[in-house]
Amino acid sequence: MRPDRAAWLCLVLGHAVLTFYFVDARFTANPLSRALPIVSLFEEGTLRIDRHQSLTPDKAKIGDHYYSDKPPLATSSRGWTPSLAARPR
Question: How is the chain split into domains, by residue range?
Answer without folding.
Answer: 24-86
